[in-house]
C-alpha cells in the first residue's frame, strides 16, 4: 500500500463523519458554549450591552424558591415518564413477541407514535381530555371524575405525563422487542420443561437478560424527560396551571424568552446540563453494576 493510498484511507472516516460533526458542532457545542459564557453576564434583551457579574446569576437561581419547586416538579415528572414509558413498552413488547396472526401489523402500529412530534402528541391528548369537547374527559365524567386540567394542577401533570409516555413508548418498544427476540428460545423451553410458569420464566430469565436494554433505555428516557418534553408541555399546559407543570427546561424558556432575563436563563441551562450529566454518571456508576451482559 502506497503512502497516498494510506493517507486517503485514513481520511475517509473523517470525511464521512464531517457532516454529522458539523451539525453537532453548530447546533450543540456552539450554543452550549454560548450559554456557559452568557451565564456570567447580565445582558440587555435587545443586545445593546452586557455587564460581567461572575457567579451572580447562579447565586440568584440557587436562592430562588421557584427554582427548587421546578426542580421537584421535574424529578416527579421525569420518574413518571421514564418508568411509565418503559413499563408500558415492555408489556406491549412481551405481548407482541408472541406468535399471533397479524403480529407484523400490530408491531407497525405500535411503532407509529414515535413519528409524531412532541407538540403534536401533546395537542392530541389535550383534545381528547378537553374539559368541554374531549371524548376521554366525557367518559371520565360518566365515572364521576370532574376533569379540568386547565384548573387542576394534578390533572395537568397527569396529562403531560400521559402524552409524553405515549410519545416515548414506541421508541422503548422497538428496543425491548429486539431484546426479547435475541433471547434464545431454548432457555425458555428448558425452564418450561422444568416446570417454571410464564411469570417465573419472565422474572428469572427474560427480565435479567433484558437488563442491558433496560439500562440503556433508562438513560435515554431520563434525557428525554428532562429535555425533549418541552414541546409537549408548551402545547398542552404552557407550564400551568399555577406553575404545576413548569419543569426546569420550561422555566429556562420562560425566564429567557418571556421574562427576558437572559443571564438567569443561561445559568439555569448550565445547571440543567450539569444535573443531567450527574444523573447519567450516577446511573453508569451504580445501576450498571446490576446489568447482566
Question: What does this molecule look like?
Answer:
It is built from 13 helices and two strands; from the N terminus they run H-E-E-H-H-H-H-H-H-H-H-H-H-H-H. The protein is mainly alpha-helical and about 290 residues long. The protein has a domain of about 200 residues: MetI-like (MetI-like fold, Orthogonal Bundle). A two-stranded antiparallel ribbon has the order 1-2. Helix 3 packs across helix 7. The longest helix has about 35 residues. The radius of gyration is 23 Å and the shape is globular.
List the helices and strands and how they pair.
Layout: H1 3-38, E1 41-43, E2 50-52, H2 56-62, H3 65-96, H4 103-111, H5 118-128, H6 135-142, H7 153-182, H8 185-193, H9 198-209, H10 211-228, H11 230-236, H12 248-258, H13 262-287
Antiparallel strand pairs: 1-2
Helix pairs in contact: 1-13, 2-13, 3-7, 3-10, 5-7, 5-11, 7-10, 8-9, 10-13, 12-13
Tell me the structural class: mainly alpha
- Please name the CATH architecture of the domain at 71-247 and 269-290: Orthogonal Bundle
What can be said about the biggest beta sheet? 2 strands, antiparallel
Shape: globular
Rg from Cα = 23 Å
Structure, briefly:
By secondary structure, the chain is mostly helical. It has a domain at 71-247 and 269-290: MetI-like fold (Orthogonal Bundle). Helix content is 74%, strand content 2%.
Please give a handful of descriptors for the protein shown.
293 residues; mainly alpha; MetI-like fold; 13 helices
